[in-house]
C-alpha cells in the first residue's frame, strides 16, 4: 500500500506532462456490488445513476460552476481483490456528455459478487485522482453501499489517508429493512448503517451521508447528493421525505 506522504505529494505536486484540464470537481463514484446487493437492486442503482446525471437539477449545478464542467469516474468494489474501474475519467459539461457517460454506464456489466471492502474502493479512488491529473480545487469520493466493511484493511485508515490527501468522502447508505439472517449484522450494524458511515467512512470538508430505505428512490437521493456535491450546498433533509440527510460530525 502506498504511503500517505506519496499520495499527498502526487495529488498536490505531480503535474502531468500536458496541461491539466480544469474542472470544478473531480468525482469518484465508488459503488458496492457485493453479494448483499442482488441483481435487481444493482439494476436500480444503475438506473438511479442514469436518472441523476441526466436530471435538469444536476445539469444546472454543473452549468452553474465557474468552469461549467466536472470529471467523473465510476468504480465498483466487492472484496479487497475485487476492484474495477468500470468507467475511466469522463468530463461532463452538458447534456450530450452526460448522455454519453450514462449510456456507457448503463451498458456496463456487473463486475463482482464477493464480500465488502469499502476501504479498497476508497484506496482505488485515491489512486484514480492521481492518474486523472485534473486541475481542480475539489476532489470527492462518493461511496454508495448497503453494508459495513468486512474485507481488506480497516476502512477508517483508508478514510483518514484520503482526508489527509485533501479529499472529501461522502456516503449514500442504502438501508436493508428486511435482511436475510446471514447478512443482518453486516447491513444493520449496532447504531445503524447511517451512523456507521458517519463514524467510519465519510470525512473531509463538508462531508455528509444520505440514507435511503428503498432502491427505487436511489435516483432521487443520488440527484440530491450530486447537486450538493457539485454546487457545494448544504443538504436539507426536509426536501425529500424518502431520504434522510445526516451532516458530518
Global morphology:
globular
Level of helix content?
25-40%
How many beta-strand runs?
A: 7
Task: Give the termini separation.
Answer: 28 Å
Question: What class do helices, strands and sheet pairing give?
Answer: alpha/beta
Radius of gyration: 17 Å
Low-confidence stretches: 12-18, 236-249
Report the β-strand fraction as a percent range: 15-25%
How do the strands line up in the largest sheet?
Answer: 3-2-1-4-5-6-7
How would you name the oligomeric state of the polypeptide chains in this document?
Answer: single chain
H-E string: HEHHEEHHEHEHHEHE
Q: Summarize model confidence as the mean pLDDT.
A: 86
Total of DSSP H or I helical runs spanning 4+ residues: 9
Largest sheet: 7 strands, mixed
Descriptive report:
There is one protein chain. The longest helix is centred in the N-terminal third of the chain and has 15 residues, at 39-53. A seven-stranded mixed β-sheet has the order 3-2-1-4-5-6-7, with helices on both faces. It is of the alpha/beta class and 249 residues long. 39% of the residues lie in helices and 20% in strands. It is built from nine helices and seven strands.
Q: Which properties best describe this structure?
A:
39% helix; 7 strands; 249 residues; 20% strand; 9 helices; disordered C terminus; alpha/beta
Amino acid at each position: 500500500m502506498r504511503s500517505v506522504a506519496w499520495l499527498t505529494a502526487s495529488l498536490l505536486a505531480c503535474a502531468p506532462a500536458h496541461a491539466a484540464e480544469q474542472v470544478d470537481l473531480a468525482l469518484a463514484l465508488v459503488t458496492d456490488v457485493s453479494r448483499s446487493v442482488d441483481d435487481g437492486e444493482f439494476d436500480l442503482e444503475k438506473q438511479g445513476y442514469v436518472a441523476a446525471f441526466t436530471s435538469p437539477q444536476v445539469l444546472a449545478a454543473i452549468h452553474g460552476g465557474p468552469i461549467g464542467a466536472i470529471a467523473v469516474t465510476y468504480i465498483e468494489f466487492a472484496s479487497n481483490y475485487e476492484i474495477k474501474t468500470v468507467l475511466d475519467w469522463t468530463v461532463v459539461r452538458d447534456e450530450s456528455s452526460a448522455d454519453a457517460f450514462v449510456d456507457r454506464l448503463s451498458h456496463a456489466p456487473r463486475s463482482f459478487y464477493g464480500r465488502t471492502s469499502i476501504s479498497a474502493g476508497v484506496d482505488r479512488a485515491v489512486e484514480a485522482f492521481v492518474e486523472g491529473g485534473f486541475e481542480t480545487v475539489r476532489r470527492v469520493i462518493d461511496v454508495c453501499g448497503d453494508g459495513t466493511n468486512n474485507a481488506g484493511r480497516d476502512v477508517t485508515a483508508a478514510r483518514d489517508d484520503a482526508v489527509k490527501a485533501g479529499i472529501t468522502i461522502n456516503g449514500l447508505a442504502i438501508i436493508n429493512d428486511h435482511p436475510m439472517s446471514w447478512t443482518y449484522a453486516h447491513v444493520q450494524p449496532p447504531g445503524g448503517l447511517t451512523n456507521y458511515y458517519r463514524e467510519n467512512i465519510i470525512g473531509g470538508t463538508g462531508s455528509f451521508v444520505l440514507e435511503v430505505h428503498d432502491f427505487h428512490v436511489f435516483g432521487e437521493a443520488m440527484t440530491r447528493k450530486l447537486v450538493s456535491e457539485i454546487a457545494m450546498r448544504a443538504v436539507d433533509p426536509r426536501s425529500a421525505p424518502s431520504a434522510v440527510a445526516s451532516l458530518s460530525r
